[in-house]
Amino acid sequence: MPRRSRLFSLSALTRAYQRNLKAFARATKPARPKAPAKLRVVSPKAPAVARTKPSVGKPTPVSGEWLAGLAPGPAGARRYQLYVPPGLALKTGEKLPLLVMLHGCGQTGRDLAAVSRMNRLAARHRFLVLYPEQERMANAHGCWNWFERRNGKAEAEAATLLAAVDLVARKQPVDLARVAVAGLSAGASMAVLMAARYPERFCAVAMHSGVAPGTAESAASAMAAMHGRREAQLPNTFAEGATPVALPPLLVLHGDADGVVSVRNAAATALLWAGALGARAGAIRTLQRGQRHAMRVTEFKTGGRTVVALREVVGLAHAWSGGTAQLSFSDPAGPDASALVWAFVVRQFAKK
Asked: What is the DSSP string of 277-318?
């Protein structure tokens, strides 16, 4: 593609991201829902629940230590922040799980930490959380370049993010057999690209409102992919010289009211991943907790084990489900995505 045409396509992509995300931030006024009730199973044909009126609240700070660092890699250096829970008293030789959290466009790592409240879970369950930071020189809107596969930028960023994991593991007591990666939007797309390229390095991956790896090769094709108009595929994404191994288990979370990334990407990615793992879909269930949005759940199993879980949230737009009130890209009325992510990750520990 000529340079001028390519730059025009990139400009169109970033403008579209900006328009869609700004519109979503203006239109959404999420709220903290009422106290959660007992989980119940709802008929798949049941209508969506009525939404509760938003409440007002500020996120409560979580104690712990933030450690800043800089990881060099093929895409250049990337800053990161590592959350370390307070009062860790490690036993001799003990190592901790690590969850890598990749922010979306228009966000920072700290933004995703505030929206998801993942650090609260880290403090409760004793794991480390790594928040890499995209450089604005690499993408003007802070998006991870998951779609730039034609020029190799996507793979270079994935390798740089893995270098950040290795750097942290050298400095902190990280159990490399219990490393998982999750992300929102562009961060979700980069998370599944990392898991597809380095499957032996991750015990699990979670994609919240993202697009399958290999669906786009450039900025121009990324827009079509985001709108669900590109066929999901898993190209030869393994690192050069690596021996292909089974993909890690995948959790897919997506809102069916997402106007930025089509929910069609959720099912397409789940089917693609399940096909690669030889897994079969079970019956679709609809679950709901109290007044939170309902969600349609499909589990793909092989050998009795769930290796892909698809959760489509009814009425959720382009936002972290169950996130903090009053923050952009966050809907506290949805199921708690952070709890769902960590529960899915923990289930994989015994399998490694």
From this structure: HT-EE---EEEEETTSPPEEEEEEEETTEEEEEEEEETT--S
Give residues with Cβ within 8 angstroms of 26, minimum separation 6: none
- Segment holding 179, helix H or strand E: strand 174-184
Displacement of CA 58 from its chain's centroid (Å):
24
Please state whether 324 falls in left (phi above 0), alpha (psi between -120 and 50) or beta. beta
Q: Are 196 and 131 in contact (CB under 8 A)?
A: no
pLDDT tens track for 195-238? 999 999 999 999 999 998 888 888 889 998 998 888 777 755 55
The residue with tokens 């740089």 is 160
Say whether pLDDT at 77 is over 60: yes
Who has greater pLDDT, 36 or 166? 166
Query: pLDDT > 90: what percent of the chain?
Result: 68
> How is residue 217 annotated by DSSP?
S
Give the residue among 316, 306, 318 at the shortest CA–CA distance from 346.
306
Note the pLDDT tens digit of each residue in 245-300.
Answer: 799 999 999 999 999 999 999 999 999 999 999 999 999 999 998 889 999 999 99
